[in-house]
Design goal:
- The chain is of the alpha+beta class and 114 residues long.
- The chain has helices at 34-53, 94-101, and strands at residues 14-19, 27-31, 63-75, 80-85, 104-107, 110-113.
- The protein has one domain.
- The strands form two sheets. A four-stranded antiparallel β-sheet has the order 2-1-3-4, with helices on one face. A two-stranded antiparallel ribbon has the order 5-6.
- 11% of the residues are buried.
Length: 114
């Protein structure tokens, strides 16, 4: 999926969203798999931390996540564009999926494997 494909998403498409300083608007980037999304989120978090530790930013309040497109979620009356939080096929959230299903865990800002 390319960046321009975010304008015409298909069911199941994924994107990472990241807000480096709340309340600004989010940076969005398409990814092809949950694993790719997790790696990008980890890199963005580490980059923000690097900037803080090296006095590039005096402080920050960031947030990010992985979203999946579902055209059934589009509601123009509510201005909802069809992007929602990603969950695994068994309904588990990102933290559970990383830890239990893939043996990955975010510990001390490092993506580690068992």
């Amino acid at each position: 999926m390319k960046k321009e494909d975010l304008k015409k998403p298909k069911n199941g498409d994924l994107k990472v969203w990241w807000i480096p300083q709340v309340p600004m608007k989010s940076f969005e980037y398409p990814v092809s798999s949950p694993q790719e999304g997790f790696i990008l989120l980890d890199a963005l978090a580490k980059y923000d931390l690097f900037q803080l530790e090296n006095n590039v930013k005096p402080d920050f309040c960031n947030i990010g996540g992985l979203s999946e497109f579902d055209e059934e979620l589009i509601d123009e009356t509510e201005d909802f564009d069809g992007w929602g939080d990603w969950f695994s096929e068994t309904g588990e959230d990102m933290d559970y999926y990383l830890r239990e299903e893939n043996g990955l865990e975010l510990l001390n800002n490092d993506l580690k494997t068992d």
